[in-house]
Design a protein that fits this description.
The protein is built from 19 helices and 15 strands. By secondary structure, it is an alpha/beta fold.
């Protein structure tokens, strides 16, 4: 439900905050006062094209912020959670427009795209009238309205799920079949490549180990020479090894430390150094004993490393990637060699899921056909009451001409209307005016109110070209609809305005420098005056005021 709208520096609005309640809210005002501004601002917040001309004169930026209570809108909450934009059953959409640079959009404080605004808006608000958000013209919305009213969501889900599974298996079959048709040449190449990689049998991590061993063996002579020299100097020199000299001076300093204790610390350091030298000598002995000059092993490593790197260059991969490449090629080879078995299994699976799809789609078509007749009849009846005498509404189920399988079933849903008796029914968008579309939409929404998913419905110009009894019926229909959904209606008819649970008045104030539009909530006495203005002429008489007060009392708002 829409709970709050904040408008700042938009068109002729300087700053405006509107709190909205459940039920029917009516919006009235004199021609030119700016009734459309609220809807234009809301449309901008919900993804309409941004234009810097909407910025109030003299300002550099406009901002619209709308708040929704999403606690009862499961699909919107799921969408918000999926996009990591959820926030405790509340959704705040903000849109800013600047003189320079693109507009910016935010959902619950996080940057969002205009496409995301539009996706979310379709779950939260439905605008009816001469407006860009005219959802009734969209084929998917027409289908959703029929399916929601029919209450066969299980069938819709089964059809959609079966289609997705069929599509997945069918794509897999086509891909494998294409590969099979090209397999002769590919098979020869794969068999050669797999055999080549299998023969060399390189293991994971082997390339690096070989490089390390090869480097050591290549430099074995230098390693042996240097380590033996170091060992000789440390402990085996006849002229006094480093170990012997350290031992001598350590003992000497320890004796002198009795004379000057400052030498004791130095003697201790030399003693520690002696321990390190002895450990290093032991390690060097072990290293020299294990170090071998192995020309045959070195030759083998040269050949092995060369073979591996040549094969890696051939396949244009790193040497370390050859084991993984072998697994991939082996898997592909197995897939092609067993393609006939795989194709046969896929065909069996496709036949099973196709049967399940066709059964579900057939049942869905039957349900849609039955409910379409009922809904068409009820909408047609409502059209007569709403000032469209002789008009007729039909719901056509148009089978897909080329596609045997579709996520929505076997047919497209199309709303048709005949505005006059004897005229053939044509697509709703081609034969109905803005006001007629609004009234047809109202007729549908009243009937389908309990099953529709969208919590907030906004009607603009729903009462264009009507008056008297029909106007009162329109108001009663809106009132009825508002028992199930939040309804906001821009109207110029007193009969409709009197039925509102909440009444907002748009007014415009001007001076020599500026023009400002405002929206105020009306109490009872203010409502009487506004209804009198809507009914009366230039001069509002006491009789007109009495009539307005009587009108409010009659509908229970007095």
């Amino acid at each position: 439900m829409l709970t709050h709208i904040h408008i700042w520096n938009f068109a002729i609005v300087e700053a405006l905050d509107i709190e909205l309640e459940p039920g029917l809210s009516v919006l009235t005002g004199e021609t030119g006062a700016g009734k459309s501004i609220l809807l234009d601002a809301l449309g901008l917040a919900l993804g309409d094209r941004a234009d810097s001309t909407v910025i109030r004169h003299g300002e550099s930026r406009a901002e619209i912020s709308v708040t929704f209570d999403t606690s009862k809108v499961a699909n919107a909450e799921a969408w918000l959670k999926e996009h990591e934009l959820d926030s405790e059953h509340e959704c705040i959409i903000r849109r800013t427009v600047s003189e320079k640079g693109p507009s910016k959009a935010f959902i619950n404080g996080k940057p969002a795209t205009v496409q995301q605004l539009r996706e979310l808006a379709e779950m939260l608000v439905d605008l009816h009238g001469q407006h860009e958000h005219q959802s009734l013209m969209k084929a998917d919305i027409q289908q959703q309205l029929l399916d929601d009213y029919a209450n066969h969501s299980d069938l819709v889900t089964k059809v959609s799920t079966s289609f997705k599974e069929w599509n997945k298996l069918n794509n897999e079959f086509n891909k494998l079949n294409t590969v099979k048709n090209e397999q002769d040449h590919r098979l020869d190449l794969l068999r050669y490549q797999v055999n080549e990689l299998e023969t060399i049998n390189i293991q994971k991590g082997e390339s690096k180990k070989l490089d390390i061993e090869h480097k050591r063996l290549s430099n074995a002579s230098l390693l042996l020479q240097t380590t033996e020299q170091a060992l000789h100097a440390l402990q085996e020199s006849d002229k006094g090894s480093i170990s012997q000299q350290l031992t001598y001076f350590t003992l000497e300093l320890q004796q002198l430390g009795k004379t000057d204790n400052k030498l004791n610390e130095i003697a201790s350091l030399l003693d520690n150094a002696m321990i390190q030298i002895n450990e290093a000598s032991t390690e060097l002995h072990q290293y020299v004993d294990n170090l071998e000059l192995d020309p045959q092993r070195l030759s083998y490593l040269d050949e092995r490393i060369s073979s591996i790197h040549n094969l890696a260059r051939k396949h244009k991969v790193d040497a370390d990637a050859l084991p993984e490449l072998f697994e991939q090629l082996q898997k592909e080879l197995d897939s092609i060699e067993n393609a006939d078995d795989h194709l046969e299994k896929l065909q069996q699976d496709i036949a099973v899921i196709a049967k399940a799809y066709q059964e579900a789609a057939k049942a869905l078509t039957q349900s849609r056909t039955k409910v379409a007749k009922v809904l068409s009849t009820k909408v047609t009846e409502n059209m007569q009451e709403l000032g469209m005498e002789g008009g007729a509404f039909e719901i056509a189920l148009n089978p897909y001409e080329t596609e045997l399988f579709h996520s929505n079933g076997n047919e497209q849903i199309e709303f048709l209307v005949s505005a006059n008796p004897g005229s053939p029914a044509k697509s709703l968008s081609k034969v109905a005016s803005g006001g007629e579309i609004s009234r047809i939409s109202l007729a549908i929404q009243v009937i389908a109110a309990e099953s529709t998913r969208i919590p907030t419905l906004i009607f603009d110009e729903v009462d264009v070209g009507i008056g008297g009894r029909v106007a009162e019926i329109v108001g009663l229909k809106l009132k009825q609809l508002a028992t199930h959904r939040q309804v906001i209606c821009v109207t110029h008819l007193a009969q409709v305005a009197a039925l509102g649970d909440h009444h907002l008045q748009v007014s415009k104030q001007s001076d020599a420098a500026t023009t400002i539009s405002q929206i105020n909530y009306l109490d009872k006495s203010q409502r009487v005056k506004e209804l009198a203005r809507m009914m009366g002429g230039i001069e509002i008489t006491q009789q007109t005021l009495s009539h307005a007060e009587e009108m409010l009392g009659k509908v229970g708002n007095g």
